[in-house]
Design brief:
This protein is an alpha/beta fold. The strands form two sheets. A three-stranded antiparallel sheet has the order 1-2-4. The chain contains two helices and six strands.
Amino acid sequence: MGVSAIDPAYGISTANHAEAQIKKMIAKAAKTRIALADHSKFGKQSFAYVGPVNDVNILVTDSATDSKYISDLREAGLEVIVAEILPAQPPARRNRAYSNKND
């Protein structure tokens, strides 16, 4: 499940009450709960509370996330997977053979 805001002390929240209710139902029904939150979501609280961080089993985030948040979440019992952010690459140039249909 995607996360709009996550704070280790406050928990997980989102901007929309209906979305929060759906996420609560998903968390309740799921055997394993996996959340995705990039570095911009940490240390924030949003309008609608979803639940405590330990309602999630696995959190996937990126390498720009402050290590303090990662440590706090691991101490809370979450498995935290950190994906490395790679420098942006220019789009690959395609070698296309153009033909003139009139040939």
